[in-house]
Design goal:
It is a single chain. β34 and β35 form a beta hairpin. The relative contact order is 0.06. The protein has about 850 residues and is an alpha+beta fold. α6 runs antiparallel to α7. The longest helix is centred in the first third of the chain and has 15 residues. The strands form twelve sheets. Strands 1, 2, 3, 4, 5, 6, 7, 15, 16, 21, 22, 23 and 24 form a 13-stranded mixed beta sheet that branches. It has a five-stranded mixed beta sheet with strand order 19-18-17-20-25, covered by helices on one side. Strands 10-14-13 form a three-stranded mixed beta sheet, covered by helices on one side.
Length: about 850
């Protein structure tokens, strides 16, 4: 069996679990959890938030709870419980975007799974296969957990979900679901399992949603004898089997969509609970068939739960097949738009029907029955009613993580006690028997009582106890509990007074003597104490100068003499005050914030060209005025001229028709004609008016009194023809579109052309980069530095500098499709990104 590895709380590998029992389950009908039990004496240093996994398998998850089992003092176990990879997905809710009704899972299946895990914030622990699955998804979800959403999207496309740990993250992948029901069915003659076939599932589903009493949303769905769902009923009387689906607060559209799905789900209530022998292996989503030859019963249903128990001997798997429809809740809750009250949402293994909340027993509570119980069921199959009751009791399954009390030894304890023991029927050759006497009395002989020596004067009764000279078994066990084996050893750290140093055993005697001989430098061929050394140069060997040593100490490991080239035709570095050559007529300004700016420096213009009677002029410099032309003005023909009329003093005309209204006058007076072009104020004495004359197609009307409206014409209006009539419909209809010319633009509201949008989209982002988003970055001051003149320099060179700047779990964006692995090394994985190429370093 593969090693069971555990990590620390930061998900770094910490060790391998040696002695353990791992029980785990996953599937829509389970709690998607695991329990890892280890002997207390050899428990691993697992922390909360640690990961446990078997590389290349689906066995693994995150530790949420740490406890101890101490019902048997001589068999204490540390227990670590948590969520499987599937449970981590089930703990995240997929919400639609603001203003959207659903989140849509679509596209190639593996790519869609990758988008899903990033959407729910699990991208640091999960990824998806980069291979093309060949499976297309298009599925909508609304407030579903990520595991249910993924299973539903895959199931709708005839696929299943696979999860495995690749040493770095849990990898999700899609694969076609397999139907094993015809090719490899389970047979009760070969395997022990329970199954049941439902011949009349629910075929009439009454779906009720939002509203109260007569206003409550209601829709009916029916299934025919073949399981096809529609809104036409075909089964009646005793053949009709109805159920109510209470989907609180769902509108009519949602109720119709979910109600149909629920009835389709209920059409397969066949069940099978099997402990599958080696050689059989299924995935959640596969369809499995089971057959019993004696009854002729055949069931076919999908795998909805998978449980496994893993230890040093291997893995033992069991399956829940087709149970999801039977245990599924017939109630649901949509989000409420009303106020007041409280809404309860059914969680895992919980159903809500009306005001009743019920708990369904999960797969972990229905673990495989022990071998003794299975044998008891087999032996009791044809027994009496009393034996039948015993069979029923044996069918009660223990919890997946159960333990036995002290009446039983564990397999490990039994193995330890049997180790080194011989079979009770073993034999020894006579020659192997030691300490044999030289002679033996006859096989059949007796001794006289008087010949027996050393007889005690009296004997204790057969039922007696020993005095204080003997220890009881409990006293002996207690004294032995704190003792070590006779052949035990100690490490250096366990010896309290271990000396700091020990005498050498492999040196000469004179080296151990307290008084050592002395020799001159010449006697041993060494230089005198006052000798000197030449300093090394670039061409001559010698000793390292102190300044050179200090400089060398300041050079990072693996650094080289790399100098960042200046950017030009080839890639290179630039200073923040550098300029970049651009198109003719533009000179760049210094780079500011990593962005080069350009300004138009073309200051050479020609003289303007004046307009003629037949041609327009051209823009340019004004022509130089001649000496003495200071009072002249530039005319549109390009010449400096004196305007023809220099009189700028306005004189109001006095001719008739150009005179002002005369001063004076009083309230009620009108202007009366006095002479040509002259009027005077006077009283209005004309108080007699005739009726108005309406206008015609050829003649204007005349002012006058309004005609009297006829009786019944209270809602009519006077038109220009002098008639009281009903006006035509003047209701304004706003046009569907407007020409751009009629839209007023200002500083904050302007149109943009496609060319401008393309140019803006091509610009680099101005946001600061994050772990998941490309953006602006700055030198870290360690591996990349900026000098006072703005020059960038790399403290480490080549691949080492690059890999130091991008440690594992970091992101690198580039315009090149070539993986950084080809140039710098490391292990990289490409991530989806709207433009360019985004690479994630794995190791």
């Amino acid at each position: 069996m593969d090693d069971l590895t555990y990590t620390d709380a930061r998900w770094r590998d910490a060790g391998v679990v040696v002695a353990y029992e791992l029980a785990m389950e996953h599937g829509p009908a389970t709690r998607n959890s695991f329990a890892l039990a280890c002997p207390l004496s050899s428990r691993p240093a697992i922390e909360p938030r640690s990961l446990v996994y078997m590389e290349g398998t689906e066995f693994g998850g995150i530790v949420d709870e740490i406890g101890v089992e101490a019902k048997r003092p001589r068999r204490k176990r540390a227990v670590y419980r948590g969520r499987t990879w599937h449970g981590l997905l089930a703990g995240k809710i997929v919400c639609p975007d603001a203003g959207r009704t659903h989140y849509r899972i679509r596209g190639e299946a593996n790519a869609a799974l990758l988008a899903l895990v990033h959407r729910v914030g699990l991208g640091d622990l999960f990824t998806a296969s980069s291979a093309d699955s060949g499976i297309a998804l298009d599925h909508q979800v609304r407030f579903a957990d990520a595991y249910t959403a993924a299973l539903g999207a895959l199931r709708a496309s005839g696929a299943k979900l696979a999860v495995s740990w690749d040493g770095d993250r849990a990898v999700l992948s899609a694969a076609p679901a397999k139907d094993w029901s015809a090719a490899d069915e389970l047979d009760t003659d070969r395997l022990g399992f329970d199954m049941a076939k439902c011949y009349r599932p629910v075929n009439h589903l009454v779906c009720v949603g939002e509203g109260e009493l007569t206003d409550r949303a209601e829709v009916h769905f029916f299934a025919d004898a073949e399981g096809n769902v529609s809104q036409t009923q075909t089964l009646f009387g005793v053949d009709e089997r109805a159920a109510k689906y209470d989907y609180t607060n769902a509108d009519a559209e949602t109720l119709a969509e979910e109600g149909r799905k629920k009835l389709e789900e209920l059409q397969n209530e066949d069940t099978c609970d099997a402990d599958v022998a080696e050689g059989y292996s299924y995935d959640v989503g596969d369809v499995v068939g089971a057959y019993d030859a004696e009854t002729g019963i055949f069931v076919s249903a999908p795998v909805v739960g998978k449980a496994a128990t893993v230890d040093r001997h291997g893995a033992r798997e069991s399956y829940m097949i087709g149970e999801a429809a039977r245990t599924s809740s017939l109630s649901a809750t949509a989000e409420s738009s009303g106020g007041g009250g409280r809404t309860y949402v059914a969680g895992a293994n919980i159903t809500i029907a009306g005001s009743t909340i019920s708990a369904d027993v999960g797969l972990a509570d229905l673990a495989a029955v022990e071998d003794e119980a299975r044998e008891a069921r087999k032996d009791a199959s044809n027994a009496s009613a009393a034996a039948g009751r015993a069979q029923e009791a044996a069918d009660g399954k223990a919890a997946l993580e159960h333990v036995h009390d002290e009446r039983y030894y564990t397999e490990a304890e039994t193995d330890a006690m049997l180790a080194g023991k011989a079979s009770s029927a073993h034999k020894h050759p006579w020659g192997d028997v030691t300490g044999k006497p030289s002679s033996y009395p006859p096989g059949s002989h007796v001794h006289a009582w008087g010949d027996v020596t050393g007889r005690p004067s009296s004997y204790p009764p057969s039922d007696h106890s020993h005095d204080g000279r003997y220890y009881t078994e409990a006293e002996t066990d207690a004294m032995l509990a704190g003792k070590a084996d006779a052949g035990h050893g100690h490490t250096r750290a366990q010896i309290a007074d271990f000396p700091a140093s020990l005498p050498a055993s492999d040196v000469y005697a004179w080296a151990k003597a307290p008084s050592k001989p002395s020799y001159t430098a010449a006697e041993v061929g060494a230089a005198g104490s006052s000798h000197g050394h030449t300093t090394a140069t670039a061409k001559t060997a010698g000793f390292l100068a102190a300044a050179d040593k200090a400089k060398l100490d300041g050079v990072a490991e693996n650094a080289n003499a790399y100098v960042l080239p200046t950017a030009g035709a080839a890639l290179g570095g630039v200073k923040t005050t550098s300029t970049v050559t651009s198109a003719s007529g533009y000179t760049p300004t210094p780079i500011i914030g990593g962005v080069p700016y350009y300004k138009d420096t073309n200051t050479t213009y020609g003289i303007m060209t004046g307009a003629t009677a037949s041609a327009a002029g051209t823009a340019g410099l004004a022509p130089a005025p001649a000496k003495g032309a200071a009072t002249r003005y530039l005319r549109s023909d390009g010449s400096w001229q004196t305007p023809p009329d220099t009189n700028t003093v306005y004189t109001h005309p006095t001719a008739p028709g150009s005179r002002h209204i005369p001063a004076g006058g009083a309230s009620g007076q009108i202007l009366r004609w006095s002479a040509d072009g002259t009027a005077v104020w006077g009283a209005d004495s004309n108080t007699t008016y005739g009726p108005m004359a309406g206008a015609t197609g050829s003649a204007a009307g005349k002012a006058g009194l309004v005609p009297a409206p006829a009786a019944g014409g209270a809602t009519r209006y006077l038109n220009a023809a002098g008639e009281w009539t009903v006006p035509p419909d003047t209701k304004y209809s706003h046009p569907a579109t407007h020409p751009a010319a009629m839209i007023a633009q200002d500083a904050t509201h302007r149109f943009a052309t496609d060319a401008e949008k393309t140019a803006w989209s091509a610009k680099a982002p101005s946001d600061v980069a994050t772990a998941t988003k490309a953006g602006l970055v700055k030198p870290d001051g360690v591996t990349v530095k900026v000098a006072s003149d703005g020059t960038l320099s790399a403290e480490q060179g080549g691949a080492a500098s690059f890999l130091a700047a991008y440690p594992p779990q970091s992101l690198y964006w580039t315009e090149s499709p070539t993986s950084p692995q080809a140039k710098y090394g490391g292990v990289w994985e490409r991530r989806e990104w709207p433009h360019g190429y985004l690479w994630a370093r794995k190791s």
